Amino acid sequence: AEKDVAKVVPNRIFSIAVHPSESHLLVAAGDKWGNVGFFEPDHAQDDTCVTVMDVHTRPVSSLIFDKMSPHRLFSGAYDSFVRMLDVQQRKAVAVWDCDEDEYGMLCSTGYDHFRHQVMCGHADGSISLIDARSHPARGRPKHLHLHGGKVRSIQVSPVDPNLIATASHDCTVRVWDARKLTATNYLNEWRHGKGVNFVDWSPITGSCLVSTSTDDTLRVLGGIGGGKVTESVIRHDNQTGRWLTPFRAVFDPKCDSAFVVGSMRNPREIEVFSTAGKGERLKRLSHDNFSTITSLNACHPTINVIAGGNSSGKVFVWR
Predict the structure, then answer these.
(1) Alpha-carbon distance 16 to 202, whole Å?
(2) Edge-to-edge strands of the sheet including 270-274?
(3) Could you read off the pLDDT tens digit of each residue along the chain, which spans 319 residues?
(4) Strand-pair category, 296-299 with 306-309
(5) Handedness of CA 122, 73, 224, 218 (dihedral sign)
(6) Distance separating alpha carbons of residues 50 and 36, to the nearest angstrom
(7) Which uninterrupted H or E stretch holds 101?
(8) In the Cβ-directed half-sphere of 187, how many Cα atoms lie within 13 Å?
(9) What b-and-e string marks burial along 67-79, b requiring 16 or more CB atoms within 10 Å of the CB?
(10) In whole angstroms, what is the distance from residue 78 CA to residue 222 CA?
(11) Spatial separation of the C-alpha atoms in residues 80 and 231, rounded to whole Å
């Protein structure tokens, strides 16, 4: 529907998230120059369905709604700030100001809903763990060097808070025990042909991961934390080039069996793949009015909604 498309932020979208409310659809998007926009497609007045906040000064690489307190939205950006936004009041407070000279540029942000802990990945291959219960965070963060290149993604298991997955430009995906974090003490490692842009956990069991790499593959990675390590490789054109945000394959939060990713194919579409077998393509989402590439997509956690963001700041809602 026409109301499900809007220009939400002024510039290229670098992050996107869907609020968990079933009664009030809300999509958040972060852009290249630090803006965070909120899109309410069911709002009665078209001119007020979008609200934009000036939150950061550089690309907003991560947006995460707090599952325990959904009015809180955590944002991480290349300006090395982590902020917490109150969605109801439309106010932002600083959680952590990362000193780039000490920690390196902030490249990715994750959130541990169990421990109320923000996890940051840095350009030098290190991570920082920050207590998010106070704003700004108190004390020095735990800081560890885990990779030989940029940490492009850091995610905690939805089932076991002691398991953390990281993806890096050093061509690896690794799983760690949060209680025993050292550079060589990873539980699992999978190697890709080129840098890995993103990794996501299967939401129900946490038994596998899906990774997105510039080696033109999506990989379903199993054997987490023990047992036989498995890997299913799906060939996929991930050459988004200079002007598009790199693809990130993400699970549908409602099941372990399917994940969603953007596509370079014509006519334009969003692709849904199976985690079973060799990764069969389950569905292609396309429409006569959909003529763009949504590099980033996010699924609503409980209802059938997918939101995609493109390089011009537009958000497209599928339902």
Answers:
(1) 19
(2) 250-251, 258-262, 270-274, 281-285
(3) 789 999 999 999 999 999 999 999 999 999 999 999 999 999 866 668 999 999 999 999 999 999 999 999 999 999 999 999 999 999 999 999 998 888 889 999 999 999 999 999 999 999 999 998 877 777 789 999 999 999 999 999 999 999 999 999 999 999 999 999 988 899 999 999 999 999 999 999 999 999 999 999 999 999 886 668 889 999 999 999 999 999 999 999 999 999 999 999 999 999 999 999 889 999 999 999 899 999 999 999 999 999 999 999 999 999 9
(4) antiparallel
(5) negative
(6) 10
(7) helix 100-103
(8) 20
(9) eeeeebbbbbbbb
(10) 31
(11) 34
Query: Widest CA span of the chain, in angstroms?
Result: 55
Pairing of strands 72-77, 81-86: antiparallel
Q: Does an H or E element contain 119, and which?
A: strand 117-122
**DSSP assignment letter at 278:** T
- Chain segment 108-138, per-residue pLDDT in tens: 999 999 999 999 999 999 999 999 887 777 7
User: Is the backbone peptide bond immediately before 70 cis, with ω within 30 degrees of 0?
Assistant: no
List, in sequence order, every residue forming a beta bridge with 7; answer none if it has no partner.
314
* Alpha-carbon dihedral sign for residues 286, 310, 121, 123: positive
Query: What letter does residue 315 receive in the DSSP assignment?
Result: E
What tokens were used for 149?
A: 């290149």
Residue 20 one-letter amino acid: P
